[in-house]
Protein 1
Amino acid sequence: MRKFVLGDIHGGLKAIHQVLERANVTNNDTLIFLGDFVDGWSESPAVLDFLIALQKKQSCIFIRGNHDELLLDWLLGNNENIDEKLWFQHGGETTVKSYQNIDAKTKEKHIHFLQSLQNYYLDTENRLFIHAGFTNMKGVDYEYFKPLFYWDRTLWETALALDPNLSKDAITYPNRLTIYKEIYIGHTPVTKINETIPVNKACVWNVDTGAAFKGKLTIMDIETKEFWQSDALPELYPNENGRN
């Protein structure tokens, strides 16, 4: 049995099929999805249908992303929680359009799935899987404002800015980067630092390789760090803009 982690999907169902095939994933493998299943490409409802069916075949762990929470609020009619103009600019408009022909029963199924998402997953080897990050210096158990689990960017920024020569014993070494053996995140595409593959800084692995934009979807073997990628999403959806 292998354990895989997958980056942000953003409505790109075709990319999921590609990476699962390219990594030769079997029903005996565990899949950890880091969230942001929706908003970007046109197949957000189909992505949720696929994931709901997939968890009946094999072990899956689904982490909550900020875009997943935005969609949940929209489906529930909690519009006071949504800045619609901002959401639409970042992929929400495509998702809303894709739900125009989705029946009420399917929407209810999607609501139930989105409500079931986990804020984070901590495995038996003290490896943390979380969409965005956390801010409390003592770790996720002490985070007061839970939406930071899927909105925070400071964890990744801290890891990026950290002097790699700084000793973990140094008084200035960030405590957040000492709590867990490894931390796997998405949320902030590595394409923002001109990278196209998973990036490791300190104990943090960022596997969001920009599938919402011009990048690819990535799946990575947690033990070996071997990874596989889809085609670039604009190639899979040539008549769409994604979040570009």
Protein 2
Amino acid sequence: MDFLTGEFISGLLAIIMIDLVLAGDNAILIGLAARKLPKDQQKKVIIWGAVGAIVIRIIATLLVVVILKVPGLHLIGGLLLVWIAYKLLIDEEEHDVKPADSMWAAIKTIIIADALMGLDNVLAVAGASHGNFTLVVIGLLVSIPVVMYGSTLILKLIERYPFIIVIGAGILGWTAAKMIVAEPFMHNYFANPFVKYGFEAIVVIGILVAGNLRQQKVEKEKAIRNKIQIEQNG
């Protein structure tokens, strides 16, 4: 894959979009870990916590790119990414991160928690890179300012324009489908371009439809619980 080719550029744009839609968790994570610290220390926590988290993600992503060369793991990774894309559309995530009492404790909390929670980003970036290490590093380096300075803004944009999440989930679904069809032992099943691209389209549409239906159900359940609570308090 050469620079400035359509494949390289589309892969880079996919990685950047993945970083954007998944940056909300970083904003929440940093906010929860640093909320008890003074303002001047919060800025340092944002910088060093984000840098540490990005370094861990670069190492983890490069390892995943190598691991995905093992037969069968493209299929497993693709199926995991389908689930991650589906979960992205459902607003029922909880973040159990306790506030830290010191700057270094907050930085450590952010790095450890991000390493544990960052499977979605690592797997998605590895899948979108198609094994290109240069693309992985460039994509993740682009994500550094996004995580450090733009995550809070992105979180606000996502709240105001929910379709950003839908676009991101679609890209994750497309990446998952491409990982599945790239599995060597399934090559014969997708040798026909019509079958290959049809499968990718079905995966993306299926994720968006299933996620939308599930989100509607979640919102109805929340509305019912709120109504019951109001009636009990009243």
Protein 3
Amino acid sequence: MIDLDYLAFLENILTDNRKERFLNVLANRTKHFTIAVEDVFQMHNTSAVMRSCEVFGIQELNVIEQRYGKKIDKEIAMGAQKWVDINQFDSVATCISTLKNQGYQIIATTPHENDCLLEDFDITRPSALFFGTERDGLSEEILQKADGFLKIPMVGFTESLNISVSAAIIIQNLTNRLRNSDINWQLSEEEILEKRLSWARNSIKDIKRIEARYYEEH
């Protein structure tokens, strides 16, 4: 449970504009879709995917780091890591089982004989969208465990797009359709309170000193 007194204490430090901005952004946040990236060798691409998640309202990004184990490039993420939740996994199996237990269907973004074009994708089901490496695409393990396949329609000679570009196109399309639907896609009241608390903490300099003062007084 969220300590509402503590939340009020922290938000009292923030400007009214900042608090209003939080509420406006949270009104457009969703966990109906979540994004997963697998062993992305060029870390700036993972950071760029994170920025797309933040800009278009996806609250969670799942990062599988079996081989490269690099950290998020904070410069390229442009502060997005403060506002998007990053779930890190050291194996495909753990990531997939976790997301399935949360009620997501696993969607591999790759050309496949049973693929679905972006505009035809059914947005009603909570979905985890998986993106693979620049060099090899998604692993066979993910392709075998996927519940469905999604691709971007292309009409040129080039057969693929950079992962960060693909993710941006797909995330923008699906979240826009979601917001124009009657699907219950928004965060719950409890999730909104959790994010207000987390974002307030991320916005306050010297938060440890501020917290210590609060607990001394309470």
